[in-house]
Design a protein that fits this description.
Elements: E1 5-6, E2 18-31, E3 34-41, E4 44-50, H1 52-57, E5 68-77, E6 88-99, H2 108-111, H3 121-129, H4 131-134, H5 138-161, E7 164-165, E8 171-172, E9 183-187, E10 190-194, H6 199-209, E11 212-219, E12 232-241, H7 245-264, H8 267-276, E13 288-291, H9 292-301, H10 320-330, E14 334-337, E15 350-351, E16 354-358, E17 360-365, E18 369-376, H11 381-391, H12 399-403, E19 412-418, H13 419-427
Parallel strand pairs: 4-6, 7-11, 13-14
Antiparallel strand pairs: 1-5, 2-3, 2-5, 3-4, 5-6, 8-10, 9-10, 11-12, 12-19, 14-17, 15-16, 17-18, 18-19
Helix pairs in contact: 5-7, 5-8, 5-13
The structure holds 4-amino-1,4-dioxobutan-2-aminium adenosine-5'-monophosphate and magnesium ion.
Family: Belongs to the class-II aminoacyl-tRNA synthetase family.
Protein name: asparagine--tRNA ligase
Enzyme class: ligase
C-alpha cells in the first residue's frame, strides 16, 4: 500500500522524518484494510494513511468530518499525481482524538449544505444561517483568504506609494452620502450615526500628513435587498492633495492594477481566483473613459429604460440594472465620469467646462458594476456653504469640515472602493454577501 519514498533527515541513511500534526477531518476513504484521512489545518490539508490495527480499531464513526485529531507518523514523499496535496503523505503509527464531532442526524455532512448557490434567496438564507459552519468549506475559506490578500495588497500598494494610513472614527455626527441610509444611535443622550464613509475625516488629514488612506467599515441602512448592497462593508478610501481630476483617474488606474498584480503574486490566492473565476484577467490599461452624458446616449440607443420605464435622459440616475447591462455588454473596466451635480453628494467639485456636472468618477467592473466612487472636492469656502444650503444640511455639525476651506485650501480629491465588490469581481461571486465573513444586510444581523 505504501507508495513513494520515506523522507529522511539527511541525504542518505538519515533517520526518517517523524511529524505530529493536528487538524480536523476533512474526508475519510476506506479501502481493503487501509484508511485515508484528509486532515485540514486552516487551508492546508495533509493526507494521512492509516494501516493495520490503526485502520481496524477506529471505525468511520470516530473519524467523521470535523473531528479534531492528532496524528503522529513518518512523512513520505508521494509521486506527483498521487492525489496527496503537496505530494506528501503521513504514514500514521499513532493517533488521538482531541474532540469528536457527532455522526448521524447531527453530522456536519448532514447538517451543512455544501453547494454555494446564493442565487435564490431561500438557498442563500439557509447557507447564511449556518455561516459559522459553511465557512469551513473550501470556497468560503478561499474567498476569505483572497480577501485577506487583497486587503494586504492595498496596504502594500499604499506603502509603496508613500500614502499614510489613518483610522478615522466610526461614530460620527455628520452624514456623507445622504440622510436616507444613516444608522442613527443614541450617544450619551445625543444623536450620532455609524459612519457612511471616512472621506470627510480623511480630507482633514491632508494638511497634517499629506496623502492618506484608510480601510475601515462603513455602514449604510440600505432598505433594499440586492446582490451588491450590504449594511456593513469594508471601505478602502484615500484622499490626495494638490491634484487634478486627471491625476485622480490616473491614481485609481495605477492602484487597481498594482493591487491585482500583488494579489496574483500570492500563489494560493492566484490558484483560488483561477479555480472560481477561470476567465479572470487583470484589467487592460488604459481603462476606458466614458462621460455620464455618453452613457445616457448609449442606454437610449439600445432602448434600455430608466427606473420609471422611460428612455434615459440627462439627469437620470443610472440604476443598478442598467449599469450592469452596460458594463457586461462593454465587458471591460469603465471609468464613468462627470455625473450631474444634483444626483451626487454635496461635496463634489463642479467641472470647469460645464457647471451642470461634477468632477466625479465611478469605476464599473463586468459582473458587478460600480466598485469605486470618487471625485474632486469643493475647496472654496463660499461654494461649500452654498452646497450645504442647496442640500438642506445644517452647516453647524460640519464646522470642522468647513474649517479646512478656511485655513489653506487646496484642490484635492479621493475615492472609496467597496472591498466586497472588488472581491465579487475578482472571484466572480454571485453576491457581495459571499465576500463577507458574517454579512449584514436588511433583515440579517446574525450569526
Ligand atoms: O459611492 P459611495 O457611496 O462613495 C462614498 O462613500 C464616498 N464618500 C467615498 C469617497 O470618496 N471616499 O461608496 C463608495 C463605494 C462604492 O463604489 C461601492 O463599491 C461601495 O463603496 N459601497 C457599498 N458596498 C457594499 N454595500 C453597500 N451598501 C455599499 N455602498 C457603497
Ligand atoms: Mg457611488
Amino acid at each position: 500500500a505504501k507508495i513513494g519514498t520515506l523522507r529522511k533527515e539527511g541525504d542518505d541513511g538519515g533517520k526518517a522524518v517523524r511529524v505530529k500534526v493536528q487538524g480536523r477531518v476533512q474526508r475519510v476513504a476506506k479501502q481493503k484494510g487501509i484508511m485515508f484521512v484528509w486532515l485540514r489545518r486552516g487551508m492546508s490539508t495533509m493526507q494521512c494513511l492509516l494501516t493495520g490495527d490503526l485502520a481496524k480499531t477506529y471505525d468511520a464513526l470516530v473519524l467523521v468530518r470535523e473531528t479534531s485529531l492528532e496524528i503522529v507518523g513518518e512523512l513520505w514523499e508521494t509521486p506527483a499525481g498521487a492525489h496527496a496535496p503537496l505530494s506528501r503523505e503521513l504514514h500514521a503509527d499513532y493517533f488521538r482524538v482531541i474532540a469528536a464531532a457527532p455522526g448521524g442526524d447531527d453530522a456536519f455532512a448532514t447538517r451543512v449544505p455544501s453547494d454555494f448557490d446564493h442565487s435564490t434567496s431561500q438557498a442563500s438564507e439557509a447557507l447564511l444561517n449556518l455561516r459559522h459552519l459553511t465557512l469551513r468549506h473550501e470556497k468560503p475559506s478561499a474567498v476569505m483568504y483572497v480577501k485577506s490578500v487583497v486587503e494586504r495588497a492595498f496596504h502594500n500598494a499604499y506603502h509603496e506609494l508613500g500614502v499614510t494610513k489613518v483610522s478615522p472614527p466610526a461614530l460620527v455626527q455628520t452624514q456623507v452620502e445622504g440622510g436616507s441610509t444613516l444608522f442613527g444611535l443614541d450617544y450619551y443622550g445625543q444623536k450620532a450615526y455609524l459612519t457612511q464613509s471616512s472621506q470627510l475625516y480623511l480630507e482633514t488629514m491632508l494638511p497634517s500628513l499629506g496623502d492618506v488612506y484608510c480601510i475601515e467599515k462603513s455602514f449604510r441602512a440600505e432598505k433594499s435587498l440586492t446582490r451588491r448592497h450590504l449594511s456593513e462593508y469594508t471601505h478602502v478610501e484615500a484622499e490626495l492633495d494638490y491634484i487634478s481630476f486627471d491625476d485622480l483617474l490616473a491614481h485609481l488606474e495605477d492602484l487597481i492594477c498594482r493591487v491585482v498584480d500583488l494579489t496574483l503574486a500570492d500563489p494560493v490566492a492566484a490558484k483560488a481566483i483561477k479555480e472560481y473565476n477561470p476567465d479572470f484577467k487583470p484589467p487592460a490599461r488604459p481603462f476606458m473613459r466614458m462621460r455620464y452624458a455618453d452613457a445616457i446616449e448609449w442606454l437610449r440607443e439600445r432602448g434600455i429604460k430608466n427606473e420609471e420605464g422611460n428612455d434615459h435622459v440627462f439627469g437620470d440616475d443610472i440604476a443598478e440594472a442598467a449599469e450592469r447591462l452596460m458594463t457586461d455588454e462593454i465587458n471591460q473596466t469603465i471609468m464613468l465620469t462627470h455625473f450631474p451635480a444634483h444626483i451626487k453628494a454635496f461635496y463634489m467639485q463642479r467641472a470647469a467646462d460645464d457647471d451642470r456636472v461634477t468632477e466625479s468618477v465611478d469605476i464599473l467592473m463586468p459582473g458587478v458594476g460600480e466598485i469605486v466612487g470618487g471625485s474632486m472636492r469643493i475647496w472654496d469656502y463660499d461654494e461649500l456653504l452654498a452646497a450645504y444650503k442647496r442640500e438642506g444640511l445644517d452647516p453647524a455639525p460640519y464646522y470642522w469640515y468647513t474649517d479646512q476651506r478656511k485655513y489653506g485650501g487646496s484642490p484635492h480629491g479621493g475615492f472609496g472602493l467597496g472591498l466586497e465588490r472588488f472581491l465579487a469581481w475578482m472571484m466572480k461571486l454571485w453576491t457581495v454577501r459571499e465576500a463577507c465573513l458574517y454579512p449584514r444586510y436588511m433583515g440579517r444581523c446574525t450569526p
